[in-house]
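Bug #77: duplicate submission created two jobs. Keeping one. Sequence:
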Amino acid sequence: MSTPIQWLEIATTDLERAKSFYASVFGLEFEFVEMPDSKMYMFGAPGQGCLINGEGSIPSAEGTLVYFSCDELSTELSRVEAAGGQVLVPKTDIGDFGFFAHILDTEGNRIGLHSNQ
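Kept job's structure:
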């Protein structure tokens, strides 16, 4: 089964601060793109997603939750607070499905982490 997810946008109020957070926690590399009504930093393979700052892009800790895949999510969790974020739910065992955690990024977005270890 393939996923229907084509693209994701993580809203920001401070694009540079968000870029620094995601680079520090996940080791992501970014490509800057300026559109007529927004600015963004794309990350991952083409078509994966971006950090975005523009009209109508409002960070939120409620609603849709995006999960980032991690080899061992304790590594990323250990970087969250130093990067300016907050751990909301620590590493939690979900049996055969691995482990998850929730964090709050510097912009106020709740983000999920998942790993099999």
